[in-house]
Write a structure and sequence with these properties.
The chain is built from 3 helices and 3 strands; from the N terminus they run αααβββ. It is of the alpha+beta class. The chain has one domain. It has a 3-stranded antiparallel sheet. Strand 1 and strand 2 form a beta hairpin. 15% of the residues are buried.
Length: 100
C-alpha cells in the first residue's frame, strides 16, 4: 500500500463517522449554500467537498513539514495530525456562525 492509499484510508475512516444524509438535511432546512451557488449542495457535493478538504489539509501539513494542520471550507473544519508516525484526521461540521 503506497502513502496515498494509506492517507485515503485514514480519510475514509474519518468520513465514515459523518452522517451525510443528516448534514444534507441541515443544509436544506437552513438553506445553506456555497459561494456561487443558489441552492444547497447535494449529498455527493458535500461528500466530495469533505474528501477534498481532508486531502488539502494533509497536503498543507506536508508542505509546511509540520505535524498538525487545521483548515476550513464549506461549513467544515478539518484537522490533520501526526501521532507516532501515523496520520489522523478530525472532521467537524459547523452549522452555525463561521468556521474561523
Amino acid at each position: 500500500m503506497n502513502i496515498d492509499d494509506k492517507i485515503m484510508k485514514k480519510i475514509e475512516e474519518s468520513m465514515d463517522q459523518l452522517d451525510f444524509k443528516l448534514i444534507h438535511k441541515i443544509f436544506i432546512d437552513n438553506n445553506f449554500t456555497w459561494q456561487f451557488k443558489k441552492e444547497p449542495p447535494s449529498i455527493s457535493e458535500i461528500f466530495f467537498n469533505v474528501l477534498k478538504g481532508c486531502r488539502d489539509c494533509y497536503d498543507r501539513m506536508v508542505k509546511l513539514e509540520g505535524d498538525y494542520m487545521r483548515t476550513s471550507s464549506g461549513r467544515f473544519l478539518y484537522e490533520c495530525f501526526l501521532d507516532e508516525g501515523e496520520v489522523y484526521f478530525r472532521i467537524f461540521f459547523v452549522p452555525v456562525g463561521t468556521v474561523d
